[in-house]
Specification:
Naphthalene 1,2-dioxygenase Alpha Subunit, Chain A, domain 1, 378 residues, Rieske Iron-sulfur Protein, 7-stranded antiparallel beta sheet, 9 helices, 19 strands, single chain
């Protein structure tokens, strides 16, 4: 049952069964700044989050940075060809080391040098060198050069961030002792590894800032009850009635099948579109009518804004006219969704609604809300 805000603020936790009345998060979990702060610790610091694509850093020294909330990370390929992840924080006095470098425009370096006091680290994160002023005490009359301790390269190295992968997809986790990625991913890991994702190159990236809570957009992405009324260009040739939503512990898949007579080109998933949502904020879209795939990172900025990073992968980054048109259609769908979720968020912010009510085919949205509730209660 939908609950209006009548001044009593009566709400309940998300029910484990979608058929029960309180099957959605209370509205204030989308609008309260304290919930946003809680999510930074209980969700984005404990679960595996998508960092980027290994195919963008192919050579030793190639790197990009990733920001998750207040945490900043360097993703770099070391001299042995292995990908490493470190906090973008100097071991000396905590300075940010390298400037923001997006995955779509990676940098290259032979070592990691902090510009503040020139502490330099190897690509393996170990301290390699410091200026002379950290080895002698020439300006300190109370200390002899021989009393200056030698810095241990490992103990004074960069702090590592847990890193794992599914094919070329890189994931990071900030927890001290995180669950294994395969435990969070479940059968999704084997399913995605069965596709040749590494054969595709990043061709386009679009970054958008949207005025709503990240879970609002995630819920919209996770269902297609809104498609008939709002995505007319996309649903042409799609048999929504025969489509299927599959829900697992930490991910769900939306399968969209083409109507009979609609020919799909050679694709990763021929004749079928699959939209994967991997908790908490990563998606992978296999379109079924294009030989390529897309990813979304749904990054919260605060309780009322998020950043969507949309990346498109094709066999050749120099897109054909048909591929460019396909990307343009995808962007049109995103912009249509932006309008929908911002409208929804205006309603949530009004304070009229205390707790929404999900429909029977919104079980993917229910799973999203339930996972959030479980994280809050942990």
């Amino acid at each position: 049952m939908t609950r209006w805000n009548d001044g009593t603020d009566v709400t309940s936790s998300v029910s484990p069964d979608i058929t029960e009345e309180t099957n959605a998060l209370p509205a204030n979990y989308f609008t309260d700044p304290s919930v946003h702060e809680m999510e930074q610790e209980k969700i984005f610091s404990r679960y595996w989050v998508y960092a980027g694509h290994a195919g963008t850093i192919e050579e030793p020294g190639d790197y990009f940075t990733r920001k998750v909330g207040d945490k900043q990370v360097i993703i770099v390929r070391d001299m042995e060809g292995e990908v490493q992840a470190f906090y973008n924080v100097c071991a000396h006095r905590g300075s940010k080391i390298v400037e923001d470098t997006p995955m779509s425009d990676p940098g290259n370096m032979t070592g990691i040098r902090c510009p503040y006091h020139l502490w330099t680290y190897g690509l393996d994160g170990e301290l390699r060198s410091t200026p002379k002023s950290f080895e002698t005490a020439g300006m300190n009359p109370d200390l002899e050069d021989g009393d200056v301790p030698e810095l241990d390269p490992k103990k004074n190295g960069l702090r590592e961030v847990h890193l794992d992968s599914i094919g070329p997809l890189l994931f990071i986790n900030f927890a001290h002792d995180p669950m294994a990625l395969e435990e969070q991913a479940g059968t999704l890991k084997a399913e995605l590894k069965s596709f040749p994702l590494e054969e595709y190159q990043l061709a386009r990236r679009y970054v958008s800032e949207v005025e709503c809570n990240w879970k609002t957009f995630s819920g919209n992405y996770s269902e297609c009850d809104h498609c008939q009324a709002n995505h007319q260009d996309w649903i042409t040739g799609i048999s929504l009635a025969e489509s299927e939503l599959v829900v697992d512990d930490h991910y769900w898949v939306l399968h969209y099948t083409h109507d009979e007579g609609v020919e799909a080109e050679e694709a990763l998933v021929e004749g079928e579109a699959r939209f994967y949502y991997f908790w908490p904020n990563f998606t992978l879209n296999m379109y079924g009518n294009a030989d390529g795939y897309g990813t979304y990172i749904i990054d919260p900025i605060d309780e009322g804004r998020f950043q969507l990073i949309a990346d498109y992968y094709f066999k050749d980054p120099d897109l054909s006219e048909e591929e460019r048109e396909f990307v343009q259609l995808s962007r049109k769908l995103q912009e249509e969704d932006f309008e929908l979720v911002e409208r929804q968020y205006e309603g949530l912010r009004s304070g009229a609604l205390a707790q929404a009510q999900l429909g029977p085919n919104e079980h993917t949205v229910h799973r999203l809300h339930l996972l959030a509730q479980e994280a809050y209660d942990a």
